[in-house]
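Practice problem: predict the structure.
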Amino acid sequence: MIIRPYGDTMDDGAIQLSFTLPVEHNNKAIEAARLYVLKLGFNDCEVVFSKPLSETFSFFVVYAKSQIGIDFDKVEVDDSPEDDSMDFYEVNDYIKENIGKKLVIVGACTGSDAHTVGIDAIMNMKGYDHHYGLERYEWVEAY
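Answer:
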């Protein structure tokens, strides 16, 4: 079974892309974003949203279509439930035994965008989804 994304109509190949370009926000930048997506092999490309992030960076949301499909029946995945990640205590023990000093980790983002939420979940002592944040680890100095 060949599958493709759809937006308004089944199998229309419509997708949404978002990205930043290191240019001042103006009509030329908007056209550059459209041409970039066309160069990636998409068609029916339309820049539906754009805004300046700073004097030299611009953000774009683009709708486009692709004729590419994927044979879903041939997709193979490893469904094993095995989780090789270390728990809180194993991480602390590993750092203590293998590194022998605190790790210094700095989390940062520019501005007040959605990345601050992710950084907070990673860094903050309370953590996220039953996983402690780095501030709680004895062998981590988190900023």
